[in-house]
Amino acid sequence: MSIISKFQLKSRNRKFELFFKEINPGAEDIILNVGAIPRVSWSGPEQLEDNYPWPTQILGGGNEVEGIFEYRKCYPESGAIVFDGCYLPFKDNSIDTIFSNAVIEHLETFENQRLFAQEIKRVGKKWFITTPNFWFPIELHYRLPFIHWFPKKTQFYLKKFIGGRFPRGVFFNELCLLSRTKLKKLFPDSTVIKQRITLYPETLISYYNGKLSAK
Description:
two-stranded antiparallel sheet
């Protein structure tokens, strides 16, 4: 396992610890995993489904048919469904907890992120949303420093220059990374915290456990 993979696994485990502590899901609760993906290459448990004691209570979904098909093969005990995270096919306040790990930054505009957040707040009784911190100097999807701080046009030319030098399995796409201020704007009633594994917070987490917070 590479150093980056070990770092990512440690970060995920820290998220899961906070999820269980603050959300405190029960055996009967339905968990909707928005942006669910199958297990990838790291050793040990890496996804929510690997760590959750009641996998049959998880419904995983996303907008890529092939990815959800692989997710279903990887986690046959959990449900799987294809949907658009900006238009969730569920009734208001119908899901006990919505979990979404490092998905919202892949929506290319803040307006789409607002729609995504609105749907989570409409459908979920509780939620737990994570995303990379815009102000962390390394963009962890591409393992490159500072690229996300440049204007979009500059990022495009850097992408062309770098070409195929991204880590295996990583493809360049548009990212809309969030600061803590913007994440709080999307989820004003949530607690928003910074999670740190290194010297500076790499991850932002917004969670709502039924209690309003000014943090």
